Amino acid sequence: MHLSPSGPKYFYHSVLAGLCSLALVGCSEPQQQNQSMPAPAVSVYEVAMQEVGNYREFVARTEAFQEADIRARVEGELIERTFREGAYVEKGQTLFKIDASEYTASVSEIEASLKSNRAAASRAERDLKRGREIAKDGFISEADLDKLQTNLDQAQAAVKSSEAALEKAKLNLSYTTIDAPFSGRIGKVSFDVGNIVNPQSGALAQLTDIDPIYVSFQVEESDYISYQQSHQQTNNSPEDVPLDLSLRFPNDTDFERPGTLDFADTKIDRSTGTVELRAKFDNPNGIVMPGLFVTLVVESQDKQSQALVPQAAVQENQQGKFVLVVKDDNTVAQRLVELGRRIDAMWVVKSGIEQGERVIVEGLQKVRSGVEVNPVVKQVDAKTGTISDQQ
Length: 391
Hints:
10-stranded antiparallel β-sheet; elongated; alpha+beta
């Protein structure tokens, strides 16, 4: 029996061939599409080098350069306050006045008493002089002469007592005017005009000088001993060591002025095992207030050239910190890095990256190791981390 090409067998082979051709077309289309897709664009930063010294951070607290409680030194009614709370006052400026009438009267009374005692002393001196003259002719006994001498001594003692009392009275009178012992800002007033104040009343207000400002911090005894051992030949104290000091505020911003090491204590605190050190910063605008917790950044002036990368480029996995590097053939490679200190928006890289290498800062989610990319070089603001087009 002969089957024509239009029979069942022929129909079966035709259908099978058609299905295979459709499958082949379906499999080849995605491959063609993948091969034709362009490389993803990523923003890269060319690694630069910077001179960086040995670096430590310390938790520190700010202290006033000078601080004084303004107190009454005599008793009396507070009759005047000449400043606004929180204002800046100059050295010698009058701050408070206490009713001086009682002390003025006391000065006048003692001045009169002194005048009388001086007159009595002058009279006693003349009496003794005459007594000595007539004693030569025997008209006065030795006992009477001794009495005249005693009268003079007592009169002169009374003069000295009155002079001392007058000096004290004038001093008390001067205390009725309370002046600023130094320039600074004066705080909240504890007593209003009309109150009776005295030396036991406590502080009327507090005067604070915060320019410069002190920053106190502690160093572990082991670190301090290591320092002493390394500098025993030079016999330098810590404040003589050339260091770069800077402050970071609690809001993660930096104080714009550098500081200097000002003081190192002469003993180790037994309870904490630390040595207290103090830095000093110029503070002309009064930005840094006393009692503020800050981060003191200490960096040696002996620096080494190290690579810096933006924080935006750094990622982390189970192996540690890493960056994605675009190689010369524009393929991506993962690079583990050892990070040092942070400087504003940049990380210091101790190892794992070299100058001039390109690290990805934008488009990280689009790539992985081995993928070819289209790198676009960008600029990164080292302070803020802002990424912008290269100029």
